[in-house]
Amino acid sequence: MDVIEAAGGLVTGGLIAKLLSRRENRRTDSAEQHAGVCSDCGAAVTGKFCSECGQPTHVHRSLLHLGEEMLHGVLHFDARIWRTLPLLAFNPGRLTREWVQGKRTRYVSPLAMFLFSVFLMFFVFSFSGALEPKITTPLPERIADASSELDVARTELGKAEAAAAANPGSEPLALTVSALRTQVEVRERRLAALSGTGEAAARSDGLTAGSWQAEMSDAVQDDRVRVRGDSKWVEKVKHKLRNPDLLLYKIQQTAYKFSFLLIPLSIPFVALLFLWRRGVTLYDHGVFVLYSLTAMSVLMMILSILGAIWSGFGLLGVLAITLCVPAHMFAQLKGAYQLSWFSAGWRTALLLLFCIFILTLFLVGIIMLGLTG
User: Fold this and answer.
1) Is 173 or 284 the better-scoring residue by pLDDT?
2) Is the CB of residue 293 less than 8 Å from the CB of residue 114?
3) pLDDT band at 138 (very low <50, low <70, confident <90, very high)
4) Is it the case that residue 161 has pLDDT exceeding 70?
5) Looking at residues 288-311, what average pLDDT do you find?
6) Which end of the chain is more exposed for a tag (fewer CB within 10 A), N or C?
7) What would you report as the CA-atom Rg of the chain, rounded to the nearest whole angstrom?
């Protein structure tokens, strides 16, 4: 993801979250005072706010204040964020339950938290490289694989040439020989790039020899990747696969834009866990899902930052996900729905299975949109 675009997304997320959190800036510096009349609804006012619509009686119109509003929206949710975050991390069940029960003025709304955390997560990922595939096959192994593939291609070419010689008038065999010769030439160039000048060898397509991008591009070029469907659709997909960096960018952008779909995808599965329980509504499940997704986004951000700082963090990161995700789900289920340990336990196990299914469905959809969009 482009860093500037990620920064723009972060600003947008902050402003949207600020709007949803329904907080009005209460400073009165450089303000225009409307003498006893609300500038919005026209009602008489005597204090700092209109009793009819809640509009502040001081309306800011300075460029400086506009900049301050933007920075405030991006960086600050007022004191409520410091009451929301600790509960989100260590007592998510209480946070969810209290919001559902109507104790809302003290916390940031779940939708505002989700929007801002998703924008911030992709912003962090754009700097940490968390979405960049790490394929580190040793160079000798790649050379051996390339040599083996070249031998196979040459063997197939020899067989095809022999068949074409035995049937000199066969046009399909002649086309097969031509295609196999091209394949052999491509694999010869690949092997020469890997074994002759090393990983940094220059390629005509600008990709680095031996990189995962070059491997994917060569696989498509050698017709080792088969795509079925309409010819236009196939060509569009192959064009993306021949340009792996473009494909990765498209997938990231699609995931960024459609991350909100995780909410409607998740709510029905959470509802399945409480079909026979009275007094629980889809709204309650929606709040649960929003706070849970926010917590997972924050966890991914923390792991991404630590992984960028310390290269050996991979194993600990996997361990953190393995332990923290089910523990957080269990605590949120138990506290939000007032469940026993046993009831929260089996629901957590089912919810984890549902999450795997939902995430798989989401990723497949995102990849398909990235390939064809």
Assistant:
1) 284
2) yes
3) low
4) yes
5) 87
6) C
7) 28
37, β-bridge pairs: 44
**Which three-class secondary structure string do you get for the chain?**
CCHHHHHHHHHHHHHHHHHHHCCCCCCCCCEEECCCECCCCCCECCCCECCCCCCECEEECCHHHHHHHHHHHHHCCCCHHHHHHHHHHHCHHHHHHHHHCCCCCCCCCHHHHHHHHHHHHHHHHHHHCCCCCCCCCCHHHHHHHHHHHHHHHHHHHHHHHHHHHHCCCCHHHHHHHHHHHHHHHHHHHHHHHHHHCCCCCCCCCCCCCCCHHHHHHHHHHCCCCCCCCCHHHHHHHHHHHHCHHHHHHHHHHHHHHCHHHHHHHHHHHHHHCCCCCCCCCHHHHHHHHHHHHHHHHHHHHHHHHHHHHCHHHHHHHHHHHHHHHHHHHHHHHHHHCCCCHHHHHHHHHHHHHHHHHHHHHHHHHHHHHHHHC
Measured CA to CA, the distance from residue 191 to residue 80 in angstroms comes to 60
φ and ψ at residue 230, rounded to 5 degrees: -60, 145
In Å, how far from its chain's centre is CA 345? 28
Instruction: List Cβ neighbours of 20 (8 Å cut-off, separation of 6 or more).
Output: 109, 111, 112, 115
Q: At residue 49, what are phi and psi to the nearest 5 degrees?
A: -135, 150
> 171: which residues sit within 8 A by CB, 6+ positions away?
none
pTM for the whole structure: 0.66
Neighbouring C-alpha atoms within 13 Å toward the C-beta of 67: 3
Output the six-digit token pair for 171.
Answer: 């046009």
